[in-house]
Amino acid sequence: MLNERVSEINSLLSEMGGLVEDAIVKAIRTMAEKDPTDADQIIEDLEPRINELEKRIDEECLITLARYQPVAHDLRRVVAVLKIDKDLERMGDHCENIARRAKEIIKEPLLKPLIDLPRMAETAQEITKEALDSFFKEDTHLARQAIEKDVLVDQLQEQIIRELMSYVLADPRNINKALDLIFTSKDLERISDLATNIAEETFFLVEGSDIRHMGPKDQRKNESL
Amino acid sequence: MALKIDARDVSVYFGDAQILHNINLGIEEKAVTAIIGPSGCGKTTFLRTLNRLNDLSPDFRMEGKILLGGENIYQTDPIMLRRRVGMVFQKPNPFPMSIFDNVAYGLRLQGIKDKRLLQEKVKTALIAAGLWEEVQNRLSSNAFDLSGGQQQRLCIARAIAVDPEVLLMDEPTSALDPAATSRVEELILGLKKNYTIVLVTHNMYQAARVSDFTAFLLSGYLVEFNKTDIIFTNPKDERTQRYVTGKFG
Questions:
Q1: Would an 8 Å CB–CB cutoff place B209 in contact with chain A?
Q2: pTM score
Q3: Over 90: is that where the pLDDT of B230 sits?
Q4: Spatial separation of the C-alpha atoms in residues A91 and B123, rounded to whole Å
Q5: CA pair distance A130, B163, nearest whole angstrom
Q6: Spelled out in words, what is the top-level CATH class assigned to the domain A2-224?
Q7: Would you list the domain boundaries of chain A?
Q8: DSSP secondary structure letters along A192-204
Q9: Do B208 and A66 touch (CB under 8 A)?
Q10: What is the pLDDT of residue A221?
Q11: ipTM of this model?
């Protein structure tokens, strides 16, 4: 009864997570390979499916709450899923932003070779995968690992902005191209942040602890309590 | 999905008192339909019209018709009807005889005398009722030696031994503790693969957990009938809303 429902919800969430991971990879690949095929797939297929899954998972959770009145660990799981699917849906939106922008960017020569953006995307995708795995496996160590990788994404973003600013300062006509890449890095940074939210939900699921809005130090202190 | 039972404009009276008012309700085959409502709303009366148990009251009168597989049950032999429509009551009511004889009782009434066939059918029914593992080594023990939950599952085994098409359950877990309730609920979910089940319960959470469809009765009227998912997440009638949220009843 409740177990079957929870397993159905997990399976839908896993499907949704898989689509988001795929969208992250394809979004940045559009730019790296200068091929709009992946971007079109995100816009026309992946993102709409992610949206539909969000609605379906919400409905499943609503029915589960109403019909089975889950408590304790089961209740935390359903509540966490309701938050995670919002995060995944927002991640899908950011992928769509990147895809739409990428389709424009690749029409002209790139301002500079892409090095850090693909690394950012790769790391964001890794964080997403680890965060979701940590939730399904109820593994707080893996969740911690995912959360700590977010720092790397933030550092890469700062580096990208610094480098692009130098291009703008050298020639202000580069500003549009530079801004496109900066906005893309911002999307990736947000994707990574949303993925860490998912990892934080693993702590809520496993320990019942709320580690949101704490710095990494306080989070670790909280975990050792 | 096909309708197994179709109640059309059913009104029930006991003497001058009208208990049910023009009930129209289609019960899907091989699904669990729960009937919920506050005490005195007529849910048990409705259930008992489905196998003509109300006929036993001298002042009972009914209008409308109830079709079972398209056939009007009030134009058939009630004994034959009750073979097709089994019933499980609120309180476990095993007969004062052995576990085996309880389950074999209806089969023997059907004229089955072959010992091997009886053994086979009793075993099948006990397995289906989730009781075989617990009683296989003491089939000759008195049924009253079983716990309350086991007795209720024995009654379910007795009901399904004669291979009915429909199982009526009248608050089948109200006399059981939570663990036994949970086992019976799991059993109900398993049984719906083969039987059409109508479950009367005063416990609306039970209806929420196990049923596919839910009918809400109030003062003898059918207020709302819909998929259980909808009744418990987005009921259409304000009175259903108030009942399922515990604001009355």
A1: yes
A2: 0.81
A3: yes
A4: 55
A5: 52
A6: mainly alpha
A7: 2-224
A8: HHHHHHHHHHHHH
A9: yes
A10: 66
A11: 0.71
